[in-house]
Structure formats: structure tokens, C-alpha cells
Amino acid sequence: MRWINLLLIPFSFLFLSCDVMKAELDNCQDLANYTVELPGIGFCPEFSTGSVGDNIDLSVSVLDVTGVAGVHAQVNYDPQMVKILNVETGDFFLRSQKPIFVYEDDGQGKLDIYVFFMSIEKTNDGTGQIADLTIKLINPGNSEISITTESEFLDPKDTQITIKGFGVGVINAD
């Protein structure tokens, strides 16, 4: 009887004090979080939500790439629904030197992002963010944000590397 009390009481506290939580699998490095054919370029997260007036963060990521020295990512968005507030370099090309990073937002729904490796290593492989976007939600509803087929991966000799997947994201503003 004594052993039952010694085991029952501690295990009762253990089971009664634990909350069962749902795991959120939102790691931008995890390829299972993307619906893009590989190698590709997409958004993390692919689905974002917020209220009108909120700012949300979204990353543009290269996915399962090999031998990439530069990226041009062209992003289409709905300027009636969202406004691009800020674009910063991601961490994919950060090595011994900062990459060359330039972007141009025409304010009409097209954002061009250019990032090029300027390091001794010359190329990079894998998955990572090339740009981090801050987006303001300006009207309620769903809007699509997409990577266009004008986007390209380049090797050190400025030769195009095939992109098989072009990501699409959905932004929902309440």
C-alpha cells in the first residue's frame, strides 16, 4: 500500500499539471513547411494573418539550392491590400563578407530583390532566407503574394540555375 501512495501521488501531480500543447512547425529551414517544388524559391510563412493596420514579417527563402552565387527574386503583391514597408537582407549569403543587396519596389505591386555573394566561398548551398520583408496590412480580405518566373538563380559565372518551384503566399487581413 505504501508503494502505491509513493507512486500514485507524484504521477498524479505530473499528469494533472501538464498541458497538452499543439506543436507549431514553422521553422523556415524545414522543407516540409513549403509547397514548392525543389529547388525553388518561396515565402515563410506561406500563410500569414493579422488585422488591418498591423505589420507582418515575411521571409523570401531559397529552397534546396546548390552552387548559387546570386539571386534575383521578383515578387508580385496586391498594392490595394498590402504595402511593403521594409526589405532587409536575409542570412543565406552572410559569410566572411556581407552580400550585395539591392531591392526596388515600384509601389504598384512588383518588388525586385537582388542579392549576390561577395565572399571567398563564392557559392552557397541549402535552404535559407535571402530577404526579410515587413508588410503593412491596409485593407481587409485575402491577398496573394507570389514569386514570378522572372526570378533567377545564378552561379559564379552568371549562368542561370534552373528553378523548379515558384512560391505563392496568402496574406489575410481581418
Descriptive account of the structure:
- By secondary structure, the protein is mainly β.
- It has one domain (43-173): Immunoglobulin-like (Sandwich), CATH 2.60.40.
- Helices cover 9% and strands 49% of the residues.
- The chain contains one helix and 13 strands; from the N terminus they run αβββββββββββββ.
- The protein has one helix at residues 2-17, and strands spanning 40-44, 47-50, 55-68, 70-76, 82-89, 100-105, 110-116, 124-137, 141-147, 152-154, 160-161, 165-166, 168-173.
- The strands form two sheets. Strands 2, 4, 6, 7, 9, 10, 11 and 13 form an eight-stranded mixed sheet that branches.
- The longest helix is centred in the first third of the chain and has 16 residues, at 2-17.
- The protein starts with a helix and ends with a strand.
- The relative contact order is 0.27.
- The model has no long low-confidence stretch (mean pLDDT 88).
Number of domains: 1
Compute the separation of the termini in Å.
Answer: 58 Å
Task: Tell me the CATH architecture.
Answer: Sandwich
The number of distinct β-strands equals 13
Mean pLDDT: 88
* Overall shape: globular
Series of H and E elements: HEEEEEEEEEEEEE
* Rg, Å, rounded: 21 Å
| Oligomer state of the chains in this structure | single chain
Number of helices: 1
Classify the secondary structure makeup into a structural class: mainly beta
Classify the fold: give the CATH topology. Immunoglobulin-like
Largest beta sheet, briefly? 8 strands, mixed
State the share of residues found in helices, binned by percent. under 10%
Indicate the topology:
Layout: H1 2-17, E1 40-44, E2 47-50, E3 55-68, E4 70-76, E5 82-89, E6 100-105, E7 110-116, E8 124-137, E9 141-147, E10 152-154, E11 160-161, E12 165-166, E13 168-173
Parallel strand pairs: 1-12, 2-13
Antiparallel strand pairs: 1-3, 3-8, 4-7, 4-9, 4-10, 5-8, 6-7, 9-13, 10-11
